[in-house]
Specification:
The protein is an alpha+beta fold and about 90 residues long. It is built from 1 helix and 6 strands; from the N terminus they run ββββαββ. The two termini are about 25 Å apart. Helix content is about 20%, strand content about 45%. The strands form 2 sheets. Strands 3-4-5-6 form a 4-stranded mixed β-sheet. Strands 1-2 form a two-stranded antiparallel sheet.
Length: about 90
């Protein structure tokens, strides 16, 4: 989902909770791990985009969660990590 406020990679539902998912991938550790690329500013943009999406689709009263799926490629193949509830509004 893309809007002027930001972008969300995946929007899903988990037992009545709207889940906004950021997916990050890294080909090596020269630029850090994938999960580290979800900076504070990136999280703020995701939160803004989620508010726009929820308002546009009548979901503002539903519980929501913000997850991060990170994929780090190494010599043994991909390492996938799913952080459910990785961040939220503070």
């Amino acid at each position: 989902y893309r809007c002027r406020a930001g972008e969300i990679d995946v929007i899903a539902e988990d037992r009545g909770t709207v889940v906004f998912v950021e997916v990050k991938e890294r080909g090596g550790e020269s630029h850090g791990r994938a999960v580290e690329a979800v900076t504070l500013e990136k999280r703020r943009r995701i939160l803004r985009a989620a508010h726009v999406y929820a308002a546009k689709h009548g979901l503002s009263d539903r519980p929501c969660r913000f997850d991060v799926v990170s994929i780090d490629w190494g010599p043994d193949g991909p390492r996938v990590r799913h952080d459910a509830g990785a961040f939220g509004e503070s």
